Amino acid sequence: MKLGDPRKAFLVPEGGKVKLTEKGADDLSIFPDGSKSDGEALFAEIALQIKAQQKVLYAQGKHRVLVIIQAMDTGGKDGCVKSVFASVDPQGITVKSFKKPTEEELAHDFLWRIHPHVPRSGGITVFNRSHYEDIIAVRVKKLYEDEVWKRRYRHVTDFEQMLAEEGTTILKLFLHISKAEQKRRLEARLRNPNKHWKFLPDDLADRERWAEFQHAYEDLISKTSTRHAPWYVIPADRKWFRNLAVGRLFADTLQDLDLEYPTVSWDPEEIRIND
Amino acid sequence: MKLGDPRKAFLVPEGGKVKLTEKGADDLSIFPDGSKSDGEALFAEIALQIKAQQKVLYAQGKHRVLVIIQAMDTGGKDGCVKSVFASVDPQGITVKSFKKPTEEELAHDFLWRIHPHVPRSGGITVFNRSHYEDIIAVRVKKLYEDEVWKRRYRHVTDFEQMLAEEGTTILKLFLHISKAEQKRRLEARLRNPNKHWKFLPDDLADRERWAEFQHAYEDLISKTSTRHAPWYVIPADRKWFRNLAVGRLFADTLQDLDLEYPTVSWDPEEIRIND
Predict the structure, then answer these.
(1) CA distance to partner chain A, nearest, from residue B48 (Å)
(2) Contact list, A128 vs chain B (CB under 8 Å)
(3) N or C: which end of chain A has fewer CB within 10 A?
(4) Among chain A residues, CA nearest to B199
(5) Residues 6..65 of A with a Cβ closer than 8 Å to B: which?
């Protein structure tokens, strides 16, 4: 079962212009002959590969890896984190969720609350939501004048370029679901009492502004996808395919780093351990 | 295959006096008929239980859980974290490793670097080393006058009591290995080039002071095991048994919390999701 390269298929190139309406949220064309069970079997292999790669990344302590995940509500941010990164040593991965900014956070520039959480050498950090909320929400909900979110495009690309040049590998994932799939997922939450806590009636207000959000994301992704920190638009209507695509993309990204166990400056042959 | 209760077997009661020389690092007596493969099978069940419990803990967002792990070098801190907590959603767990304090950290009280990392509601945090290093190392290596580490016993018990009273469940684990087992593990690291990075020739200096460290730990554990924040001395010469005992202990601790999915204030029947 051959899987195409998600980094080619789903990349938004620097200077490109993405149209979400033309991107299938259910586009499985890079896995043309694959069924769900094929996809899950392949994903299990990829998860083991990521687990092995992370061990070396951590030991080497050289690279820093930042994964930024954005999506509409129910887009699968939590599920993606759980699936793709669950096999990894919890010591080597940090997941940071950004909620609505607090008063203290709003009393600073919008990157102030982000910066302390970027990954350290040898570490992987996943942002579940990010500084991109402070563009999307500000724009669609008209929290400040338009100048604010417009200049933030520059602020985030400058910030990410600095991080990249200082040694951080950045992947930005937009989990792309259709409006019909969101409806199915919201209804499933309503049917399952163990998921009621995840359902916020206020989220329905965002759903009413679906087209505005999609348009804002199109503009955002087009203008902030750079070679230092590219965006990938992942078809995410099928959870198994989303996991497969993100897993492959992440494993391939690690593969391109020169991961190797560090060498030591002493000679193991010369060391004696006393009783 | 019956497993005894590690919370009974390995607890150091408040006011108790622990003698590590009388505690078998290879004591499997709570699992009398169990083999390694039995233990691993049982551990796999416990890991699934922890995974399920953590989901509710996170959804409920009420309790905070802090696990503090201390051990001599090669005692299995990293391995224990990886094994016991690997199945858990990485979003719900944070592992914080404390290294040798930086200049900035030393310019503050010894709890200054610790406090920001205590768990939030719904979260599990694991400290791989902790504020206890600032007692053990200070004492054995005579970094400051004796008064300093002596009064720190009070500082840590006061601090932990405050955390507990504010809603944090605290477990403190001493992974107890024998000096002979440490030798085997150090030699194994020397034989495996992929583990050389974990071997610091300086660690051998600590090994030379094994008895002093054991004595310092005995005193520390005896004086800082409280009902708010009890110490458990886990026989850790066998990795599979260490994982089994820590897993059981952790799952039982979660079991005692009133974990349940939160109820919501709205009526799922009344919500309509538009197309």
Answers:
(1) 13
(2) 91
(3) C
(4) A264
(5) 59-60
d(CA B180, CA B198): 19
DSSP A141-161: TT-S-HHHHHHHHHHHHHHHH
Q: Does residue A1 have a pLDDT over 80?
A: no
Residues of B in contact with A275 (CB under 8 A): 179-180, 183
**Token duo for residue B83:** 């094994």
Instruction: Measure the CA–CA gap between A98 and A133, rounded to whole angstroms.
Output: 9
Tokens of B208: 């030379």
Residue A175 neighbours by CB under 8 Å, 6+ apart: A69, A70, A71, A75, A76, A77, A80, A234, A236, A242
In single-letter form, the type of residue at position A236 comes to: A
The mean-pLDDT minimum among A107-116, A119-128, A193-202, B172-181 falls in A193-202
The answer to whether the CB of B182 falls within 8 A of the CB of B241 is: no
- Express each pLDDT in B140-153 by its tens digit: 999 999 999 999 99
Rounded CA-CA distance A112/A108 in Å is 6
Query: Which among B137, B139, B120, B121 is positioned nearest to B129, based on CA atoms?
Result: B137
**Which residues in chain B have their CB less than 8 angstroms from residue A77's CB?**
none
Q: What does the block give as tokens for A163?
A: 């991080």
C-alpha to C-alpha distance for A220 and A214, rounded to whole angstroms: 10
d(CA B99, CA B97): 6
Count CB-CB contacts under 10 A for residue B226.
Answer: 19
Give the DSSP H/E element, type plus range, for residue A209: none
Q: Does A207 touch chain B (CB under 8 A)?
A: yes
Inter-chain touch A271–B190, beta carbons under 8 Å: yes
Name residue, tokens 């166990």: A261
Strand order in the sheet with B168-176: B11-12, B231-235, B168-176, B64-71, B124-128, B93-97
What number of other Cβ atoms are within 10 A of residue B223's Cβ?
A: 18
Q: Inspect the interface and report whether the beta carbons of A87 and B90 lie closer than 8 Å.
A: no
Dist. CA A177–CA A132, nearest whole Å: 18
Residues 6+ apart with CB under 8 A from B99: B129
User: Of the ranges A197-211, B189-203, B231-245, which is most confident?
Assistant: B231-245
Instruction: Supply B236's token pair.
Output: 């850790």
Q: How many CB atoms lie within 10 A of CB B134?
A: 26
pLDDT at B24: 93
> CA A41, CA B180: separation in Å to the nearest integer?
43
Q: Residue length, chain B?
A: 275
A87 touches chain B (CB under 8 A): yes
Strand (E) or helix (H) holding A80: helix A77-85
* Domains of chain B listed by start with CATH number: 12-25+62-237 (3.40.50.300)
Residue whose tokens read 């040898």: A122
